[in-house]
Amino acid sequence: MSDYKNFEAEILVESPGRINLIGEHLDYNGGQVLPAAINLKVRLHFRKNGSSKCNCYSKNYDDHFAFDLNQIKISEKEWHNYFLGVVHFIDQAHPNKIGGFDCIVESELPIGSGVSSSAALECGIAKGLDQLFSIGLTDDEIITMSRDAEHHFVGTKCGIMDQFAVVRGKKGNLIRLDCNDQSYKYVPADFNSYAIVLLNTNVSHNLATSEYNLRRQECESGLKSIQAKYPGQKVLAQVPEEIVNEIGPGLASKTFDRIRYVVQENARTIAASEALAKGDLMTFGQNLFESHSGLSQLYEVSCPELDFLVDLAKSFEGVIGSRMMGGGFGGCTINLVQHDQVDAFIAAASQAYSEKFNIQLSPFTVAIGDGVKLVS
Ligand code: GAF
């Protein structure tokens, strides 16, 4: 695959990024989340090559790597591991179906910015290989194999939300997903005169993966302590707040903060969904601001850049809600902004942000699109 420019693909897959309106860090705690696929995508071009070798080229990194299907080992480069992991898990579940392939991948999603370029890549690889080799993967398999690749090859012990949204996204709709039993329904994204604006901080603090995994452990240990007295409590997000307040003071103070955040955010997500259903966007937006406070103060996954942008949004008249989005420690804020104020908001935020941090902000408006699909 030395000539990428004249690459003749057999199939093209488009795989979107995702946003999450509210319900952050709840997926691995069995809570409610409200994500959606967006109109920005990763594109993957595939063809079979009749060997046992797989050649992968990333246009964004201008990096090529190759591996043999019979020798799959974790790589030092993160983007390699998405391929290696997904191929590994497909091969385990459906032995001898995948043959050698060439793949070119290009992303219009900002990488490492909280819009889940990683889930887009994993699910796009799974979808592409499924089509190329007629494997017959179900959507559920694509979701769980992609999540497993992230756990075991990339090392982030993520929940299911991102892969779920990337696969099941539906144009114009949010997904109200209960991560405990994975039941879901589509909810029209009726934001009327408000646009969804993402402000990419262009910072990605390197604690992100280790702190993410630590939060998960803290929540698991908090739940275990609750279960010592209340064995019937199986799902952290569903534990009544009175129980959290009774058990919490006996725990490490950070653990108490984490579990308090989880039960409060779950209640907020339910309240926000109800407000949205009633068309009460002001209450919905207020829930976004409160979600950010919890993420910043109790869950401690924000950073000065994100806090600065949310504070700025609070004082801007045309913005009804704003918070950090995704795993945190950098990436984007999500903002609901009155359509006729979008330009002014972006201009004000860009200027203030560059004055404060000497970093350029990358703002963009997103629309809600469909999930991963075969284009040709
Ligand atoms: C990351 C993870 F991949 C998701 O599973 C989710 O936990 C999210 O952070 C926080 O809500 O995107």
Keywords for this entry:
376 residues; alpha+beta; Ribosomal Protein S5, domain 2; Alpha-Beta Plaits; 2 domains; six-stranded mixed beta sheet; four-stranded antiparallel beta sheet; 10 helices; 13 strands; 41% helix; 24% strand; globular; binds 2-deoxy-2-fluoro-alpha-D-galactopyranose
Strand content: 15-25%
**Average of the residue pLDDT scores:** 96
Task: Briefly note the structural class of the backbone.
Answer: alpha+beta
The small-molecule ligands in this entry are: 2-deoxy-2-fluoro-alpha-D-galactopyranose
Distance between the termini: 21 Å
CATH topology of the largest domain: Ribosomal Protein S5, domain 2
Strand order across the largest sheet = 5-4-6-3-1-13
Name of the CATH class of the largest domain: Alpha Beta
As residue ranges, the low-confidence spans are none
Please work out how many helical segments DSSP would assign.
Answer: 10
The CATH architecture classification of the largest domain is: 2-Layer Sandwich
In percent, how helical is the residue content?
Answer: 40-55%
Sheet of most strands: 6 strands, mixed
Radius of gyration: 21 Å
Number of strands: 13
Number of domain modules: 2
Query: How would the global form be characterised?
Result: globular
Helix and strand pattern: EEEEEHEHHHEEEHHHHHEEHEE
Domain GHMP kinase N-terminal: 81-169
Family: Belongs to the GHMP kinase family. GalK subfamily.
Protein name: Galactokinase
EC number: 2.7.1.6
